[in-house]
Amino acid sequence: MSNIVSYDERVKNFSWKIAEDELDYKPGQPINIGWYCSDRICQMGKGDKYALLWENAMGVEKKYTYNDLRLTSNTIGHFLRSVGIEAEDRVCIFLERIPELYLSFVGILKIGAIAQPLFSAFGEESLFIRLENAGTKAIITQRKHLGKVRKIVDKLPNLKHIIVVDHDGKKELMDNEVVFSLETATPVEDLKIHPTVAESPSVLHYTSGTTGQPKGVKHVHYSLISQYLTTKWVLDLQDDDIYWCTADPGWVTGTSYGIIGPFSMGVTQCVLEAGFSAEAWYKFIEKYKISMWYSAPTAIRSLMKAGEEIIKKFNLSSLRHLASVGEPLNSEAVIWSERVLGMPFYDTYWQTETGSMILCNYPGMKVKPGSMGKPFPGITAAILDIKTFEPVAQGVVGLIGLKPDWPALMRTYWANEETFKKKFENGWYLPGDRARIDSDGYYWFVGRDDDVINTGGHLVSPFEVESALLEHEAVAESAVVSKPDEINMEVVKAFVTLKPGFEANDDTELLIMNFIRKKLSPLAMPQEIEFIEKLPKTRSGKIMRRILHAQEWGEEIGDTSTLEDD
Amino acid sequence: MEEMKDIVLQYVIDEYLEDPDEEITYETPLISGGIVDSFSMVSLKRFLENKYKISIPDEDASPEAFDSVNKIVSLVNRFLNK
Description:
Chain A is α/β, with parallel strands linked by helices.
């Protein structure tokens, strides 16, 4: 039987107290996610159970029990305290998906510091913007990424400690750089857990918006309540499950459901630190007997593209439940998985700001392929008129609105309260997406309500890419929009006008692409650059991105009365 | 052939290798090894197309076909010989 048993019954009798009781949490008492993810599981008698089964592309394996997780996170927490990290200091984790990433996250939370995980493929500019905004005091990284940190450290006066977890002694370290190795550190049996309370800050994730720089989404320790219960009811994790969340903890799925959810439930999870390959993924499922798999539409579509013959080479019979997140899961992917894997992927909808799942498909509830599902019990959702922010009739497209009263909702944008306030209208939190509700109460995604590009489940700000493009010597002006993509749903496309003396050719395009890839990230790199003589602008000089967007998507261009004359 | 191998290898080292001390060979897994991700693969494909004046269709530009320098060279040769 599934954990949720009956969606309708849960909705009728819901209270977040269900999760509080299961976690033995009483309002007003300390609550520390790090402790819940490790020490508590050991106290429940599961210290010898595997918490993390890790493997990399070269086939190297590492295994950690819950007692190992408790000890290693203690050791990291103790080390951080010894260099002067205090409660609420921001500690960035800038690591590939190596064990230290997962163990550090838990250790940082245990000492009451704020974990700031960042995607390790970020270039130095992306890294700098996020560290500067957060006033980050320490960064945990590895040799491979040290070069990027060194390029920006002089501009970051708050960054006091650069902690290298895999130093091999070959290169001399610089000022503020310090070695920490789990293999040589003395394990710390007892660590004083910082008595964080419900509203103590826990995690700072960065997300992109249409305008302005990336925003630091501040979460608190009380978010555990909804992360735990959604993991239990939506992902349906059971005690004997072997769980695989394919998300990188540089993004929110990788922490809410790649660390906090499974560890707080005492479940065994696996991590494959390798790039995508259909064969490697199927082999991993077979080898570790994965039973619950939480992935993303981009990965599912890539598996579909790899064909069905390859699947026959592997025994995937351990799989019992599949779920997806990151972007709308197209109906073809749901139908494909039902046919090929014998079960559908259950789509889930949420975002960095919501901290936990919001609209979901649940075990036992009929899946309508292509639908986002229904609100999680305890979440009040509606579709709102785009001008009045009042609920609209069933079937009418409008903005998704959520009553801001669930535990994991962000508490603010770091040092940006003004933008945070703009996310609320008429008593509703607005995630920025448009949808409609059908006659059975299922939500259907229609589109974003802004220009943010969702590529492979990751948000990219056109503003950030345009700003970076202008730093290239050849670029005079630019406009960045999305274009359709079979695998990633949409990808970044740039329209560029060149400065005199530069030639619009394939080599210039490649130079600019690589410039953005290294400066921002591979996600932000335009997959195509179109050189044009002049960008469409209003008479007041504002670039009309929507004309370029419409052109890419084959849509009506709409009103062009404000377009400047030639 | 050897020259193409070395050109591709050097391009990967210059453009995608973050750790300058990391050593890679013609057989090092690039995509599954996490050296080149699926987004960056587009720029690698573009480099090959520009350098060798070929066009690689998207259906042939799979992660498997780009997973090592040797595999990339085989792919490029397929289109050079067309």
